[in-house]
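cron nightly-structures :: item 1 of 1
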Amino acid sequence: MAQDHGKQVKNDDTYEALRDQGASKEKAARIANAQANDSVNETGGRKLEERTKDELYDEAQEIGIEGRSEMNKDELIEAIRNH
């Protein structure tokens, strides 16, 4: 059985599996929580490509991606996916 990671992580099994695969704590929590919410998040569950550059920039800022102000939309999408 998966360890309880507190209120911030909504799907502990998915979180632990992602961490075992080498995902960062932030990325594992984000994915686990999205799955627990049936993939609906603050942006309505839209794919990254469907979001505006401003929405992507805000997410990149929230997760701490450096150099985001110099990135175009495609670069922001790639950076968010690889975080």
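cron nightly-structures :: done
Residues 59 and 80 are 8 Å apart (CA to CA).
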